[in-house]
Amino acid sequence: MYIIKILDEIYSIYNIEKYENLKKHIEKSEFYSILKIRDNISIICKKQSSSNNENWRVLKIEDRNEDELIQVVANITTELANEDIDFNIVSAVSKDYILIKEKNFNKAIEILEKIYKIK
């Protein structure tokens, strides 16, 4: 059984052009991700206290088995989509993360607890 860990911090998605001084927040984040699409660079990191950006919570998929991972991610995204819960998936070589808008977080946890162990 896969274990999904809830990261404690609140995260936000920032446009790097507006927030040039994010290094201190990246260094303090358990998780961060940088994404560049064309001319837009976005960063997901621990929320800055002065930010009005939307709040996101992060789940980390643990006990990763490469052979089953695609099915696990497919199951999670299907369950969340069926309940109209906004989410993003960030995959890396060693871990996978699910970002869920804070306003839907408790509902998402209730759904996922039926399938996975949440800690």
UniProtKB/TrEMBL annotation:
Name listed for the protein in its UniProt record: CASTOR ACT domain-containing protein
Pfam families per the UniProt record, alphabetical: ACT_7
Source organism of this protein record: Hypnocyclicus thermotrophus
Top-rank lineage group of the source organism: Bacteria
Domain CASTOR ACT stretches: 53-114
